[in-house]
Design brief:
Blueprint lengths: L1 H15 L2 H26 L8 H14 L10 E3 L10 E3 L5 H11 L6 H20 L3 H15 L2 H9 L3 H13 L5 H12 L9 H6 L5 H20 L3 H13 L10 H7 L8 H16 L5 H18 L4 H32 L1
Antiparallel strand pairs: 1-2
Helix pairs in contact: 1-2, 2-5, 2-6, 3-4, 5-6, 5-8, 6-16, 8-9, 8-16, 9-11, 14-15, 15-16
Length: about 350
């Protein structure tokens, strides 16, 4: 209902208002709808006893931290939410990297861990709303408004928040890295490293990190590698084997799921098998990332190519709604950044001409 009202408000604002005023009213309407949707979600859904595996993983990891236990051991043990898993199967060890542990896990020790997603998601949407409201560039304002409405009115965002998936935090970190990209390669690299350390599948972006070229790329890439690698030491320090088993072994144990939103999942729906061996799947995904990385020369280029490279890896392997949520967010962010970078270079090109 709120989404329908928001769409109608945006349509009326754009149709009846003058161009600049209409864009501003539409941007405010879209963000308010997102805010109200999240507020309603927080007030009504989160009071229920939830059984989602991700939510339980965050809460148990928080309890382990508070009690001085290692969350990557059997101190965290929760029911497997995979609908194809044997009944009663339990997952042992927190399956997320240390960055997620000290955000979602730590929050889960005192409150609902999904508040991290709410803050991250509203901050991410808020940046697009701010660009739509304040940008002097008509192109950037319109692009920001379009992306804001697309993301704010999508039902996928609410599902990601409800399930406790962690992609909103990753998107916010990518946004922070992009905003600091040219002003401070060091800070940009720090935030980029944290973003890459927030999910295991970001390993597919290694070619982009190594081959991207623009001003400050060496310092940015080096800082990102050190930050991402250093964050992993938090988990490896106490019990390396338990950490590897929890963050890698648990993923490998998932195996094939016919409900995956990927080519293998589509093939399963059509009653035939299309499963690539892991070596071929990883090799093809890294090859695509390598080919994309060769022409990456800006923050928008890096962000868009990151979305495309991950989308390729997900399409060839396993993918679930939160994976495509991340891809959509990266492509949306890169699109708006591209408008900004092109607009800033136009006066230079004009004066040169």
């Amino acid at each position: 209902m709120l989404v329908g009202i928001g769409v109608l408000a945006c349509a009326v604002a754009l149709f009846f208002g003058d161009k600049q005023l209409g864009r501003r009213v539409a941007a405010c309407s879209a963000f308010i709808v997102a805010l109200l949707t999240v507020s309603a979600f927080v007030g009504h859904e989160w009071n229920a006893a939830l059984g989602t595996d991700v939510y339980q993983a965050h809460r148990q990891a928080g309890s382990a931290l508070v009690n001085g236990q290692n969350p990557y051991t059997d101190a965290v043990r929760f029911a497997d939410g995979n609908p194809f898993a044997p009944p009663g199967r339990m997952v042992e060890g927190y399956p997320y990297p240390p960055l997620v542990l000290i955000t979602y896990g730590l929050a889960g020790a005192f409150t609902d861990p999904r508040l991290v997603s709410v803050v991250s998601w509203l901050s991410f949407l808020g940046w697009f709303a701010l660009q739509a409201l304040s940008s002097r560039s008509k192109e950037k304002s319109e692009a920001s408004l379009s992306v804001l409405m697309l993301l704010a009115f999508s039902a996928l965002g609410s599902e990601v928040l409800f399930m406790g998936w962690t992609e909103p935090l990753s998107l916010l970190l990518f946004l922070g890295a992009a905003l600091a990209w040219r002003r401070s390669p060091t800070w940009s690299g720090l935030l980029l490293g944290l973003a890459l350390a927030s999910k295991q599948y970001f390993i597919f972006l290694a070619p982009l990190l190594l081959l991207h070229r623009d001003d400050g790329w060496q310092r940015r890439s080096l800082t990102a590698v050190i930050t991402a690698g250093g964050s992993m030491l938090i988990g490896l320090a106490q019990n390396p084997s338990a950490f590897v088993q929890a963050t890698v072994g648990n993923l490998v144990a998932i195996g094939f799921r016919p409900d995956t939103q990927s080519l293998p999942g589509l093939a399963a729906d059509l009653r035939f098998e299309l499963l690539l061996p892991n070596a071929i799947w990883i090799g093809l995904s890294l090859l695509v990332a390598f080919l994309l990385a060769r022409s990456s020369t800006s923050s928008s280029g890096f962000t868009i190519r990151s979305g495309l490279a991950l989308g390729t890896a997900f399409m060839l392997g396993l993918a679930f709604p939160n994976y495509w949520f991340l891809v959509a967010g990266l492509l949306a962010l890169g699109t708006v950044l591209d408008v900004d970078e092109v607009s800033e270079t136009l006066p230079i090109r004009a004066s040169t001409t």
